[in-house]
Automatic annotation (TrEMBL):
InterPro entries named in the record: Bacilysin_H2HPP_isomerase (IPR052535), Cupin_2 (IPR013096), KdgF (IPR025499), RmlC-like_jellyroll (IPR014710), RmlC_Cupin_sf (IPR011051)
Protein name per the record: Quercetin dioxygenase-like cupin family protein
Domain of life: Bacteria
TM stretches of this protein: none
Record domain Cupin type-2: where: 38-95
Organism: Mesorhizobium robiniae
Signal peptide range: none
Amino acid sequence: MTATKVFAHAGEGAWTPTPDGNRRRVLLHTDELMMVEFGFDKGGVGALHSHPHVQASYVAEGRFEVTIDGRTELLEAGSSFIVPSNLVHGVKALEAGRLVDSFTPRRADFLA
């Protein structure tokens, strides 16, 4: 069996500050797929950006204003969204909250 980590437990991993003032922790990853938890304080912004990775996100806690390719919707805990490759997207936390994002392929920049 490979040494790839295949399980993550609640609270594992250190939070890392993000350039936009929020925080993230990588939960699990392979070359093909990565799962990352993001934490936001109320009013926190994930600035508009794009990347070649396909992203699937789950709102684990809180309420967010999510913008994808110029379209904005309000999402609350239990909601989810997908960002196709290279589309401009971003979020604003309307209250403190957490997103769990999956990326394919993995975001090597999050491992540096």
